[in-house]
Amino acid sequence: MGYEVRRNGLYYYRKRREGKRVVSEYVGGGLAGFLAALLDAEGEG
After folding, report:
1. Domain residue spans in the chain?
2. Which of 4, 10, 27, 45 has its CB 3.0 to 4.6 Å from that of 36, i.e. a possible disulfide?
3. pLDDT tens-digit readout, 7-31
C-alpha cells in the first residue's frame, strides 16, 4: 500500500495479490487518500 506520484499529484493506492498478479486499487488523492491511508495503517497493527 502506498502513495504514487501521477500527473503531478500524490494518490493513494491499495495493493493486493490475486494469485501471481498484484492488483492496484485506487483509493483517492488529497485528504481522502490521506485519511484512507491512516485507516489502513490502523488496521494493519
Report:
1. 2-44
2. 27
3. 778 889 998 999 999 999 999 888 8
